[in-house]
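Check out one such.
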Amino acid sequence: MHFSKTYAQVLEGLPPELKENAIQYRQLKKLINTVVRELSSFGLSPDLLHQLLEAQERDSACDSSLTVNLPLDEGTSQPGMCFPKAVYEFVEGSSKIEPQLRIPLETLRELASSLRAGTRVLEEAAEGNAAHARDEDSELPGAEPLNRLIPPGNTLLWSLQNPGSNTEGSLQLDMPLNSSSCEVIIPLVSDAQFFELLRTTLEHASNHLQSVQKGFLHTLTTLSRMIADSARPASSSRTGVRGSFHALSPLKDNVSSIHINGRLSKSDLYVWREIFQLYVEAEVFESVNESDRGERSLEESERRLQMFATQVTQRGLVAEGKFKLPQSRTALEAFLQLNLGILNIKKFQLANSEAIRKILKKHTKRTALSLPLDGFSSNTPPQLALIPQTRSFSLPHALVQAIGETLLPIIPHLDDYSCLICTNLAFKPIRLDCGHLFCVRCLVKMQKRGNGDCPLCRASSVLVADRSNVDWALMNFMQDWFPLEAKAKLKANEKEVLDEQLREMGIDPTDSHCIIM
């Protein structure tokens, strides 16, 4: 299947506003055909022009010249001749894109004199090029066939061979001459139209994507507030009930004296935490693994986004009654729409980038006017600076990063507040003098064993830790955002303290027999 058809199919699946700003691939192909006709009108077939532009030095005798092999009459041969190299460039300092050819006048005269049947050879080359164009453009409805060849007397080379001819319709040498270097300057009007269309399309696409990014960030901010309101912490979800303590509450002698209400009557905190956990684990658009770190392919992103939606449904997170607040369901739909929007932008950017690569490659192949595909020189006009950017900048990556920085941190993750020794929630956290944090029970056990070094930095900070090392502010935070985990941890700590007391009394807590003291 031709790329233009594949490209059209990709665009059909995108929202209308993205389709309208896509690269006009078929129109650009038609303009390439126009460029070929314009070059043929000067007697410059792609093969001949390619030799003028790309030929290498044949031997040391050609110091500043290049060798060009010219096809002549059947049965004859002409050895390679040395000609100065032609230059394809853009007019410097112009506010417009103005490509031009600079060819030394001596080169054109030598070419003209060497072609005893040159016009017929050029005509045959043009016919072959036109046939090739007809094959490529047969898929385009209403495409103009490239069979309108310039008459033999209407080429630049013919005019150079016949400077005094008054043949009707002949092309006189009226194009600009560079008197200092005796060069013929050929403005390429059709080529300018090609690059102008490419430039304007890229500019419109860039402006549209900037507005898309701005709208995405605004929607993301609104969604963040909506989820923050529906995933309320424990203290704000209980109307009129204050927390059991505050950051400056008095120090407690025993952890079991702290009581936590684990009920969240007006909050979807735990539902959102599970949804975000599934989303992070899915790694829809980017991988953080060392083996395949970086952006995922379009197909893999589609598959993983579908997998995430399936897991959310299978776990019953969208089941009737799962959400306690109505805005949570609306927020989930908006979150999925944001991810679909990133997927569409990824499709758009990849399709546009490939279309640019293909059309520039086709431009080089059909016209012999070569442009670098992996970077432009200092001679390239600034109006075309967007071309390399379309392949280097990833808007989907920036949007995914915005989700990770703005939305996901709204729900604190349990792993960020766990004790590195027991891997459970570090409730009633003890912050050592070295700055590292562990749960109280793990530190008590280390002190009883006489282990005085911090498990992380080996600083002698464990044995000197006391009640003043309790981080009450963080403890309040954990009670607010992890009420169920904090309640379970307190219950486990209470049981562990009781078991220690029984063992100190010589009683096995695992013994089910009743002992009467």
In short: The mean pLDDT is 77. The longest helix spans residues 189-230. The beta strands are 66-68, 81-83, 87-90, 99-104, 177-178, 183-187, 286-287, 294-295, 429-431, 437-439.
